[in-house]
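Handout, section 4.2: multi-component inputs.
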Amino acid sequence: MSVVAPPLPARDAELEPAGLLTRLHDWVVTVDHKRLGIMYVVAGLVFFLIAGLEAGVIRWQLAVAENAVVSPQVFNRLFTVHGTTMVFLVGIPIVFGFANYLVPLMIGARDLAFPRLNAFGFWAFLFGGVLLYFSFLGGDGLYGAGSAPDVGWFAYAPLTARAFSPGNSTDYWNLSILVMGFGTVATSINLIATVLTMRCRGMSLGRMPLYVWMMLVVSGMAVMGLPPLSAAQIMLLLDRFVGAHFFDTQAGGSAVMWQHFFWFFGHPEVYILMVPGFAMVSEIIPVFSRKVIFGYPMVVAASLAIGFLAMTVWAHHMFAVGMGAPLNSAFAASTMLIAIPTGIKIFNWVATMYGGRIRFATPMLFACAFLFQFLCAGLTGIILSVVPFNWQLTDSYFVVAHFHFVLVGSLIFTIFGAIYYWFPKVTGRLLSERLGRWHFWLFVVGFNLTFLPMHWAGMLGMPRRIYTYPADRGWDFWNLIATLGVPFQILAVLIFAINVLISLRRGAVAGSDPWDAWTLEWATASPPPAYNFETEPVVASRRPLWDVKHPEDPDGPHE
Amino acid sequence: MSVTAATTATPSIFAPVSTPAFAIRDLSFLVLAIVTAIFVVVAAVTVYAIVRYRHRPGDDGRDPPQVYGSVQIELAWTVVPFLIVIVLFLTTTRYIFAIERPAPTPDTLEVRVVGNQWWWEIRYPQLGIVTANELHVPVSDAARPMRTFITLESADVIHSFWIPQLAGKTDVIPGKTNRSWIEPRKPGTYVGQCAEFCGVQHAWMLLRITVHPRDEFDRWVAAQQAVAADAPESRAGRDVFTSVACISCHTVRGTPANGVFGPDLTHLMSRATLGAGVAANTPETLRAWVKNPDALKPGARMPAMNLSGDQLDQLVAYLTTLR
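Output:
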């Protein structure tokens, strides 16, 4: 029989309200995993707005053929900084911010294993992000050429060599991501240590919430995937500042080697971003279907398989490089194999909904849209793994459509769902359901209007990263539709922002467990006190709160 | 020079005219059929679950029966995808090897394409021809099957060679020599462009390929092999050309101009476009281009030479004789 700590009062009411400076100081010096988690997510959302506006300008420029909204160089800066921001300043901080907040609560711990390392990770990320954006102001550097980076978020050598990228804009890209990489590795090590050593009594590995399992896998991938990128970036620094020739093709360096380093990070990175999305819906779907997750051991095994296979698929970004038939076949095989565990997860989520009583609160709406959009993303992924087909589609707008279905249609949708789901835990107040529905439907329409047509543009031969295109190519229509989706998305995000601001003050009071959920974070107050749990919880199954609510039929015997 | 057929404007990958592109289209139909079937099945089950098991106002509020899993079902949805993957993988591999290791035809044409920021140099080593941005190849037919093998090299950064109706793309990488091949079956002009981000003017690094009937191709070759025209009335323009820095970068065979950084201009007016596709090649646009390339193609490597109006007129008059 499980014992769960009773909810605690949220605040010590006797304490005097602190002044603004004191409160600010508290946030800056905090080592509390919850505050750091909130700061990660808020900073990530701010960068999301900035990078979204950059994307809006990109779409404006491409709405019609031979448009001249921005100059070619400004366009190149926009897509470079948009991509870099979305991956490093939006995706990573938000998914690790959620993990920061949730993992200790879900495993019944009081903080992460290394709280000060955690604070270091956050501030390293924020410094890197500010450094990247400072390049818009200060990028001229000593040599007077260039401002913000314009070499693409992938920064392929030798375009990054001094000969082709004078000035310091590329160095801003390089150093800011290097710094953020250190922060991410630190946080990942912290999460691994926490999950392995700080689970509450009764919580064996096999009883961890799926969210925690998947963040463990994500942290493992980050620890393996980011250092190769950092290494390559240090080599690039040596190339640019002390005349090394790692990637300098004019002096015998290798352009292909950069691609191997970059994608050895870059492909696990896709899963570092996407598996947290899986983790979030693996919590949301069972709660709103009112059913236990179908096939927990299989979902865990599939996550581990994805984590393992994710390290073996990187060169599928390089099918057109000329690696030769045997290597191309090998990477096609690993890429197709990773579709199997990914498919298994979709089947398990649908099977969880099957036979349930599905409540369509906003978190579940986002989870359902995720299921369809991620299905599209996965299937276009299979298309891209078919190497000869890939030779046509790679570096075309088809790929742009594919990975935006992954990173927006799947990841951003699950993040929105997760914000609606955990907002009451973090703030003590529910977000408005009515505004949530507006947000959801506008975003579904806008997202699909923008990104579905890009599949066709790509198949009609439109390459990526072009600032304009000739009028006779037959791409105008699809590009115009894509741009028409933008206002819908802007409006949706605006409604979301309004929803957050209003609900912070006037939202319905949530109580400790507004969704009638089953994991430990719902056993403490909303927002949780600094120490999370007054006494260490003890659990006897994967759903400790189910056991409390259904003493006649606890989970334990079924596992 | 006659252009055989009108330009096919949209370079759709589903309108192939050459062997590798045909093969890829056939393979793509199989793949699209498989993924469409998967989409229909999974989406249908998901929609069914959402509609059938939605919360209804009349529900009693109790939680439904908890189903923890099923080994048989989970085994089924692991094995079936695995079988699909095996079929896909074997098919893919067959096509990879078929396309990457083509059988030589008795007759082959060798072309060497060099990517530059932001134009293509095109060389025919067997024929002694050098041109830019516009490939010309003979059609391959039953009477005379003929494959064109393309050697790809880069002078600066990474580019990617892509003419969707002829073949998939192959990257053009400095320090690495890549190969591609085409076997066009239908005369006409087809378009493509650089497909790897290569700097500020990546968007205007277009490619055109004209597939000629055999006799027309032979005439094109003969015309390209000739040295540059030297009309006495355009001597003044030729003197401008040789006396300012043009010859540092451009070659005009039969004159002292032998620069190698820019496109070979010996038969400039045989090409349909300027600046790798940024404008149609007419005397007017040519004048605008020579006056200030940056105005047509911001960031282009060719400098404006600050020529006077008279010099420009003379120079353009000379360049238009290079047919």
